C-alpha cells in the first residue's frame, strides 16, 4: 500500500553524510514506493538564525542541489519550500493553542538542542515552538510516515498529541496521525566523536566536500584514545571510524573481521582510516560531480522548486480549508 511521506531539512548549510545516512538514501528508495514530499524548511531554519537570515536564504538552492545529486527525482518526489506555503504558518498558529509552554519545555529533543546551543533564557520563542511548526508540516500533507533519526522521535510523539487533541475538540478525524520511519543507521556521530554530526558543530563531511577535504576529515576522526600502538587491543565501541564503516561499507563480513582484528590487536588506526577513505571517496565522487552540475544552472533549481511548491500549495491549501471548516472559521473563505 502506498503511503504519504513527509520529510525535509533546514537549509542552514550544505547537507552532510549524517543527512545521507539518516534519511537521504532512504528517500531515494521510498520515492519508488510511496507518495513523498521533501520540504526545504527555511522558516524552521530561522528559529535559531533569525539574526542572520542570509545563512538560510543562501543555502536553499545548495540543499536542493544536494537532493538532486543523491538521486531525488522531482518527477517522483515533490520538492517544496516551506515559506512559500502559507497554510503551514496558519496551521502552526492554530496548533499553538493546543500546546502548553511546559509541554514544549519537556520535549527531550528541544531540551537537548537548547543545551547544545547554550540558549538558556535567551531562547528565541520560535525555537521553543518549532515542534508545533513540524506538526503543521506533517499534518498539512496528511503524512502517514516520517523518516527521522531516533533523536527526533519526541517530535513525532508531539505531533500525534496535537492531532488527537484537535480531532477530539472538533469531533471529527480531520488530521492524520503519523509514524516514524527509522533507517538502518538512525544517527551518525561527528568526526570528533560527538553524539551527532551537525552543521552547527562543524564536525561533519558535506556531500560536496572535495577529495582532499574528505581525506583530511577521515584522518582526524576520533578512534580509541588508548590504542597507542598497532599491537595493542583496541575498543570498537565509540570508535567513529567503525561507526562510519558500519554505515558505508556494504561488506558486513569484512567489517566484522576488521573489528575482531582491532580488538585482539595488530590493526592500526591509519589502515582503517585509509579503508574508510576509499569507501567515502567512491560514494561521494559522483554525488560531488552531479551537485556541481546542478549548481551551475541555478535557474533550473528554482524551476524544480517552484514546480514542486505549486503542487504542495494545492495539497496544503485543501487541508487547511478543512481545518478552518472544522473550527468554524470558514465564514469569509
Automatic annotation (TrEMBL):
SUPFAM superfamilies documented for this protein: Nucleotidylyl transferase (SSF52374)
The enzyme's E.C. designation: 6.1.1.2
Xref: Gene3D superfamilies: HUPs (3.40.50.620), Tyrosyl-Transfer RNA Synthetase (1.10.240.10)
A Pfam match: tRNA-synt_1b
UniProt xrefs under PROSITE patterns: AA_TRNA_LIGASE_I
GO molecular function: ligase activity
Keyword vocabulary terms for this entry: Aminoacyl-tRNA synthetase, ATP-binding, Ligase, Nucleotide-binding, Protein biosynthesis
Coiled coil feature spans: none
NCBIfam families for the chain: trpS
Family: Belongs to the class-I aminoacyl-tRNA synthetase family.
Name this protein carries in UniProt: Tryptophan--tRNA ligase
Amino acid at each position: 500500500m502506498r503511503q504519504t511521506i513527509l520529510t525535509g531539512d533546514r537549509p542552514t548549510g550544505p547537507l552532510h553524510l549524517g543527512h545521507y545516512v539518516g534519511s537521504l538514501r532512504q528517500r531515494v528508495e521510498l520515492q519508488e514506493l510511496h507518495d513523498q514530499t521533501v520540504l526545504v524548511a527555511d522558516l524552521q531554519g530561522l528559529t535559531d538564525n533569525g539574526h542572520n537570515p542570509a545563512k538560510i536564504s543562501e543555502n536553499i538552492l545548495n540543499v536542493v542541489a544536494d537532493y538532486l545529486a543523491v538521486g531525488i527525482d522531482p518527477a517522483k518526489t515533490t520538492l517544496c519550500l516551506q515559506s512559500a506555503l502559507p497554510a503551514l504558518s496558519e496551521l502552526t498558529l492554530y496548533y499553538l493553542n493546543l500546546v502548553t509552554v511546559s509541554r514544549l519545555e519537556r520535549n527531550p529533543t528541544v531540551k537537548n538542542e537548547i543545551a547544545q546551543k547554550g540558549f538558556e533564557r535567551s531562547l528565541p520563542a520560535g525555537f521553543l515552538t518549532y515542534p508545533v511548526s513540524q506538526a503543521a508540516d506533517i499534518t498539512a500533507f496528511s503524512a502517514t510516515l516520517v523518516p527521522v533519526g531516533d533523536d527526533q522521535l519526541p517530535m513525532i510523539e508531539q505531533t500525534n498529541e496535537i492531532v488527537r487533541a484537535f480531532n477530539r475538540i472538533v469531533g471529527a478525524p480531520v488530521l492524520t496521525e503519523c509514524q516514524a520511519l527509522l533507517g538502518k543507521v538512525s544517527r551518525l556521530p561527528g568526526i570528533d566523536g560527538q553524539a551527532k554530526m551537525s552543521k552547527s558543530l562543524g564536525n561533519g563531511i558535506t556531500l560536496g566536500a572535495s577529495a582532499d577535504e574528505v581525506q583530511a576529515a577521515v584522518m582526524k576522526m576520533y578512534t580509541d584514545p588508548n590504542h597507542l600502538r598497532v599491537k595493542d587491543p583496541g575498543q570498537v565501541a565509540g570508535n567513529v571510524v567503525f561507526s562510519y564503516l558500519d554505515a558505508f561499507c556494504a561488506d558486513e563480513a569484512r567489517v566484522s573481521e576488521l573489528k575482531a582484528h582491532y580488538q585482539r590487536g595488530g590493526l592500526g588506526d591509519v589502515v582503517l582510516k585509509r579503508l574508510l577513505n576509499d569507501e567515502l571517496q567512491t560514494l561521494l565522487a559522483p554525488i560531488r560531480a552531479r551537485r556541481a552540475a546542478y549548481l551551475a544552472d541555478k535557474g533550473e533549481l528554482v524551476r524544480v522548486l517552484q514546480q514542486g511548491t505549486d503542487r504542495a500549495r494545492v495539497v496544503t491549501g485543501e487541508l487547511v480549508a478543512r481545518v478552518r471548516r472544522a473550527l468554524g472559521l470558514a465564514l469569509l473563505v
